[in-house]
Amino acid sequence: MIGFSITTWCIAVIMLCLGISLLKGNYTFVHGKVFDRTKDKAGYAKQLGKPVLLLAAGIAISGVIAVVLPQEYAMPVVIIFLLLVAVVTIGLFYRVDKYFCKSLSE
Predict the structure, then answer these.
(1) Domain ranges, ordered by start, for the chain
(2) Cα-Cα-Cα-Cα dihedral sign, residues 31, 34, 40, 43
(3) How many whole angstroms separate alpha carbon 65 and alpha carbon 101?
């Protein structure tokens, strides 16, 4: 389980750096239909930074869960936790996309 934890922590650090970059308004990594048509690209990137930080935190916490819990049931708990984090993050991404898509039509 320690290998899984180290891997998740490395991925979480990468996601954390990406989230901080987005929160600063850096949008070089962002693409998509709504992003390409919006005028407020920095604002869009800043709004995307929050769900990315949530995803990074969820991935890091899953690594901690894998180390702390007994090995027999650590993986099912981690998978359920990551699915929950993914659902919440997708919802937040959808909300940001919907907000900026609505602002395009105005």
Answers:
(1) 2-105
(2) negative
(3) 37
Alpha-carbon torsion 43, 46, 51, 52, what sign?
positive
pLDDT in tens, 43-61: 888 898 999 999 999 999 9
Residue 54 near residue 36, CB atoms below 8 Å: no
What is the value of pTM for the model shown?
A: 0.84
Q: How many residues does the chain have?
A: 106
3-state secondary structure the chain: CHHHHHHHHHHHHHHHHHHHHHHCCCCCCCCCHHHHHCCCHHHHHHHHHHHHHHHHHHHHHHHHHHHHCCHHHHHHHHHHHHHHHHHHHHHHHHHHHHHHHHHHHC
The C-alpha torsion from 25 through 27 and 28 to 32, rounded to 10°, is 180
